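In the current project phase, the collection of sequences with tokenised folds has grown. A representative record is quoted in full directly below:
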Amino acid sequence: MKAPREIQNIAIIGAGESGTGAALLARHLGMTVYLSDAGRISDKYKEKLLQNGIACQEGTHQLEKILETDVVIKSPGVPDKSPVVQKALESGVSVISEIEFASWYTTKPIVAITGTNGKTTTTALTGHIFTTAGIRTGIGGNIGRSFAELVMHDEQYETYVLEVSSFQLDGCYTFAPDIAILTNITPDHLDRYDYKFENYIASKFRIAQSQKPDQVFVYCADDEATVTNLPKFAIQSRKIAFSALKEPEEGAYLLNENEFIVKINTMDTMIIKDFKLKGTHNAYNSMAAAIAARIHEIRQEKIKEAFSDFRGVEHRLESVATIGGIEFINDSKATNVNSVIYALSSIKRPIVWIAGGVDKGNDYSALHDLVKTYVKAIVCLGKDNSKLLDEFTGMVDVIADTHNMEQAVKTAYSLASKGDAVLLSPACASFDLFENYEDRGNQFKFWVRQL
């Protein structure tokens, strides 16, 4: 869609992937750009900004410059309660997300994927299917390149496949993807939502809030929070479900752990067998991606070809190495309790579990039975592990307190035996000790390879 009004001056708060991408697109469109970050701007982004003639300020925000602009773009990591954001809102300046901004400057079809868990795998798989089918696809958003930087090269793409987080959706008002996928909703990031699950749920449903009747909303019919709250939101788009428990009127359903069916009205029914990603949670991701592909009228043989060679995403149940009969598994992207449930349930052997980081208001009680059944030892990894130690002490034979990755890996190795798995599945954000979950996962892999 087009921008709701002409924009000449723009301010951007936060200079990470999202903010830098927004600045590049704005400059490309001929706008005057002011970009600032309360912290230090990484060399990677600073170099890219300066190469494109964009001045950036770090360590502070000049409020007067922000308030004299037409629109403020807030990076996902900047909370709505940030003083500079509140000042802009109080002054009547529009504050939006980079996703919203970029969507104004492309008319290409968009598949947008959100959800507490599975959104990265579903995005990567959907993008892989589209690319296998020969469609020039821009894959990004909350993974890889920002949507704004992709749109800067809009002529290169025929469609976009985007992972979109709740923080990005909070700044969306007109964003209307042609296909919106909601994988599931479980409590996460509650520290950003006043510790109210209903606020987080509302954020996730924003992915479909502006959709029109000729667009599609894809959701999990087995997810309680999604199904219970769906009637509360005035979603105008066509609704298509996927399920492992029942056959929807239109959508996808799991026949067994190795086979599912996709049936879209007006199209032939398609059967997918022996898909590479294992586990019920990955079956859900696979069904959602297949629905998007079929709606996009990608041929069955291309969809099946893409499923046959897709290998998953880095930092999500990624097998790193087997040393002394002990398998080390990198699940650094598991930043909430529900992700850890998937991980512990999928490993059919004794587990030494590495967990911890920045707690986001987690309720660990849902993990108790799994920990008692599968976990032989826990290695806590974080600046402050007191909550984990209080929660699980006495539930396993050994629980260790560590404060860097080298120590955590070596401790886990010493506690594991041949035939066990060492699983990094933190249930927490990474920002106490690491730049992000990728840095945490990469450090895990580095220290495993030093054993």
Q: What stands out?
A: The mean pLDDT is 93.
